[in-house]
Amino acid sequence: GLGVLGLELFKVDCISFSCPFFAVYQVFESVAKKYDVMNDSMTLGIHRVWKDILMHKMNPSPGTLLLDVAGGTGDIAFRFINYVRSARERQLQRKLKNHQNLSWQEISESYQEDKFKLLGDSQVVVCDINKEMLKVGKQKAQHLGYSEGLSWVLGNAEELPFDDDKFDVYTIAFGIRNVTRIDLALEEAYRVLKPGGRFLCLEFSRVSNPLLSRLYDLYSFQVIPVLGEVIAGDWKSYQYLVESIRRFPPQEELKAMIEDAGFLKVDYQNLNSGIVAIHSGFKL
Amino acid sequence: MWPIADGATSRSLVPHSAGVQGRSRPCQCLVGSFLLRFNIYTPSWVVRPGGYCWVTAECSPLLPHVETHHRRDAAPFWDETHRRLPRPSRPAGDPLRSSEGCYQLYPGHIPTSPLQKALLAAGSAFMALCDPYRHDMVAVLGETTGCLALPNLRDKMKHHPEGYRILQERPRIRLSTLDMSKLRGLPDGSLGREYVRFLEDNKVSPDTRMPPKFVDDEELAYVIQRYREVHDLMHTLLGMPTNMLGEIVVKWFEAVQTGLPMCVLGAAFGPVRLSARKLQVLATELVPWAIRSGRNASCILNVYYEQRWEQPVESLRKEIGIFPPPAVRV
């Protein structure tokens, strides 16, 4: 039952409830401010490369509507905006090249039209269950100068506050591991995606290479909680993080679960021999 | 041999059992399993109860080897709707299991391997230097480096009648255990009155001391907790405020008294952030006095402060052996 589930999953001292939901919430409440610093130090900055690869795999064109679930501090959202902006600029430059024989008046008119469409109607909705993470994300957006095309919504991945068939792409980066019922989250993802929409999931997965697996385990269990204590003052949250990674289903299992939710052409790509995997599926 | 379904190479030729004497078992960490491929067994003095070497084992040699229910063997929630892969069961000494699997000695105890303690010591020292307001880092540094000094302190306490009583009764200095109004009512110059004055002037509270987490012995955890709680009383006895200069003087005194590496490091590196004038005062008057007092004084942890609130500070200083503070404005 839920009691056994809670006890099994969460032996964090400060958690007095046995409900996994509250446990996860409290963990991320305490780590929100130091989340980005911890990510950089734990992965030695490689998480940026992983997220860039995800963005390249997505290859969004201007006009895409993206839903980034569990995207609290906005890493994927900002990368999406940058990608779409540069794609848009390339589009505009191509258009301008074709217009080189126009008079200067006509060119300035075409500038006026495109001025308000720097993003080309692309929008990203960042949805997270945790207010603190969203707060940090909003502050980062302000600090980095991202103003348009971003929305911040408080919501649960298992019960999204959106209508059916709304989004072109659904991403969940390093978040699906923290969801209590992965199958529900996948069903919700299927529901809110438009037909033809893409599901992308970036998550820690199973390392197949035995030597790398041992090194990875040694690093995870010996170093990461220490980093958590020294940088964020929180050993238990990062102990929980490492254990939740070990508990998470491996690549093939997750692929089966995604197929069960109704997605087609489900595939996965291992990064760093399985430390991280990108799963992709289409709603057709 | 365990059932392996995930393609990992079979790990052990030797079945796991606790406390096997005789033939040395290989350590199951990275190095040990590598050596095993060449039929080289790690010597038995390296392997701790639980099957792991002293670098990666989370149980200290003093802890009883406890076979605990390994949480990864229980069905994860998603198994109810999806196929389940049989997982290899791992011994309790495996670093892949949660740290809570090892015997937790006191509330808040986090068992750590020697490697983790070394990393913690280095990391907390660096962090404490970068950001002196990270008091938790100073505390962690004290716990992880105190493995030699703490048993010394505990033995000093055991061999003294008052210290022995403290170890038996385990008093705690907390706002909930102190009668603040009674202490305020005591005459000026008494320990209780001066202590409350110190707390109010410097706006500190005895409840902000971090409980120990990384000490692998329950009695030593109390010793370090007592040391932290008595720190404010040290300020009172030495007459030092809680500014940078005052803290460094108290650290010098405590370094001589306790021998804790954290105090020594704090005393040595603390002055780095001081101005030249303060450094001069420190070097010429305060530090020599602190060292002399520290050497002359009996162990500060052997005083049952809770039973001496009415005693005048001067008389307590004489009794312990602390020289009168120099007439310098700190």
From TrEMBL, chain A:
Residues that bind S-adenosyl-L-methionine: 73, 128, 156-157
A Pfam family the protein falls into: Ubie_methyltran
This enzyme's EC code(s): 2.1.1.201
Membrane topology summary: Peripheral membrane protein
Superkingdom classification of source: Eukaryota
Keywords attached to this entry: Membrane, Methyltransferase, Mitochondrion, Mitochondrion inner membrane, S-adenosyl-L-methionine, Transferase, Ubiquinone biosynthesis
Enzyme class, UniProt record, top EC level: transferase
GO MF assignments: 2-methoxy-6-polyprenyl-1,4-benzoquinol methyltransferase activity
Pathway(s) this gene product operates in, as recorded in its UniProt entry: Cofactor biosynthesis; ubiquinone biosynthesis
UniProt xrefs under InterPro entries: SAM-dependent_MTases_sf, UbiE/COQ5_MeTrFase, UbiE/COQ5_MeTrFase_CS
Coiled coil: none
Catalytically driven reaction(s): a 2-methoxy-6-(all-trans-polyprenyl)benzene-1,4-diol + S-adenosyl-L-methionine = a 5-methoxy-2-methyl-3-(all-trans-polyprenyl)benzene-1,4-diol + S-adenosyl-L-homocysteine + H(+)
Primary residence: mitochondrion
An annotated GO cellular component: extrinsic component of mitochondrial inner membrane
Keyword Oxidoreductase part of the UniProt annotation: no
Oligomer status and interactors: Component of a multi-subunit COQ enzyme complex, composed of at least COQ3, COQ4, COQ5, COQ6, COQ7 and COQ9. Interacts with PYURF; the interaction is direct, stabilizes COQ5 protein and associates PYURF with COQ enzyme complex.
HAMAP family: MenG_UbiE_methyltr
Protein family membership: Belongs to the class I-like SAM-binding methyltransferase superfamily. MenG/UbiE family.
Function of the molecule: Methyltransferase required for the conversion of 2-polyprenyl-6-methoxy-1,4-benzoquinol (DDMQH2) to 2-polyprenyl-3-methyl-6-methoxy-1,4-benzoquinol (DMQH2).
Protein's name in the database: 2-methoxy-6-polyprenyl-1,4-benzoquinol methylase, mitochondrial
Biological source species: Bubo bubo (Eurasian eagle-owl)
From TrEMBL, chain B:
UniProt cofactor(s): Zn(2+)
The enzyme's E.C. designation: 4.1.1.130
Residues where Zn(2+) binds: 231-232, 235, 247
Reaction(s) this enzyme catalyzes, per UniProt: a 4-hydroxy-3-methoxy-5-(all-trans-polyprenyl)benzoate + H(+) = a 2-methoxy-6-(all-trans-polyprenyl)phenol + CO2
GO cellular component, one term: extrinsic component of mitochondrial inner membrane
Membrane association type: Peripheral membrane protein
Pathway: Cofactor biosynthesis; ubiquinone biosynthesis
Main localization of the protein described in the UniProt heading: mitochondrion
EC class: lyase
Compartments it resides in: Mitochondrion inner membrane
Function: Lyase that catalyzes the C1-decarboxylation of 4-hydroxy-3-methoxy-5-(all-trans-polyprenyl)benzoic acid into 2-methoxy-6-(all-trans-polyprenyl)phenol during ubiquinone biosynthesis.
Subunit note: Component of a multi-subunit COQ enzyme complex, composed of at least COQ3, COQ4, COQ5, COQ6, COQ7 and COQ9.
UniProt xrefs under PANTHER family: UBIQUINONE BIOSYNTHESIS PROTEIN, UBIQUINONE BIOSYNTHESIS PROTEIN COQ4 HOMOLOG, MITOCHONDRIAL
Name recorded for this polypeptide: Ubiquinone biosynthesis protein COQ4 homolog, mitochondrial
Naturally occurring in which organism (per UniProt): Bubo bubo
Organism classification: Eukaryota, Metazoa, Chordata, Craniata, Vertebrata
